[in-house]
Amino acid sequence: MAEVRNKQVVLRDYVVGFPKESDMNTVEGRITLKVPEGSNDVLLKNLYLSCDPYMRILMSKIDHEGIGSYTPGSPLTGLGVSKVKESGHPDYKKGDLVWGMTKWEEFSLVPATQIHFKIEHTDVPLSYYTGILGMPGMTAYAGFFEVGSPKKGENVFISAASGAVGQLVGQFAKLTGSYVVDLLKNKLGFDGAFNYKEESDLDATLKRYFPEGIDIYFENVGGKTLDAVLLNMRFHGRIPVCGMISQYNLTQPEGVTNLANLIFKQIRMEGFTVVKLYHLYSKFLEFVLPHIREGKVVYVEDIVEGLENGPAALVGLYTGRNVGKQVVVVARD
Description:
Keywords: Oxidoreductase. This protein is α/β, with parallel strands linked by helices.
């Protein structure tokens, strides 16, 4: 079978500090649209690619505790929604829709183990499987319910609430009867919101919104935000930690000075990675799909068309340029 062109986004070199569009190149590769004889790999046509904060970590030369790093000159890898073109694995057949790890290119040949789940529900937008029905949705669900252990009427504070995960945590919290405030002016039915860029004293601001303190802080930012929150946590509060986007581009991470509050207030602060919780995926779908169909949970997406616009979309995550889940459309079918 003849080779076809395969547009790709590749990393030019390892990144120090804030990533720039120029750290990535859009190039034209070539691929044969066939699975090698005897291989269990799956050939994918990529439809939607997910821009996620953790991708910045992979742009560094340092291997962060086994997470790994990208290889300069090779395509970026990340989560995406794809259609199976050809399969050497019995679990997948031509035409199946799947989501999992793929490459930033038009077509990808990947090991079947990189596919997380087959897409069974297509009455919702396919792009949702990069967000609310994919890794971010599972992160919000597992982090809030499994790690946060919410109780009705508790006070919940969410950082990075305009992003893929935070906007869902807030809505899930409202469904449990919580009082919810987010860090950005992104209401979505929340009880309050403020823009941290306009607040000179975050500690005072939190005391204004949470005079009785915070029961659950869903941590996505780290640094000065975490430091101020620790002063305002209630006894037996919980802090699920899934990200610290304010630290990813710093050569010297910021210190946190108020950690003694973990002791004095008997706070549980727990980091988690969603891949360890994917066994809850079917339970998660049972919970969230009816809410989506009934309009009780809404999802904001920031969609850009074309793989060549992927670098700008990804870099925009780190300056807060996106509103909602950042998605790159490679093809719609």
